[in-house]
Model the fold of this input.
Amino acid sequence: MIFRQTGFSVVSEFQSIAGRSDIVVTTKDSLFIFELKMDKGRAFEEVAAEALEQIDAGGYADRFAVSGKQMYKVGVVFSSDGKGMCGWKVK
Done:
């Protein structure tokens, strides 16, 4: 919902051949592919790396490769014990 307030193009659960990316945000010059994960007591770095790997393994960025836009893959990690967002990692 927050991304939609920015006025950028936002698509949730964007389908690819091997799965669905959680959020894709498109601006005039850039494209952001977000994968959201809960930490479930695991280390932030481990979960963030898993999210980025899922973006690659699922081919979420493949359909946008010819767009000419700068692409950012973002793994966002949330706390499973209710403390909000732990952080994010960009590739």
About this structure: The chain has two helices and five strands. The CA atoms of residues 37 and 77 lie 5 Å apart. The longest strand covers residues 30-38.
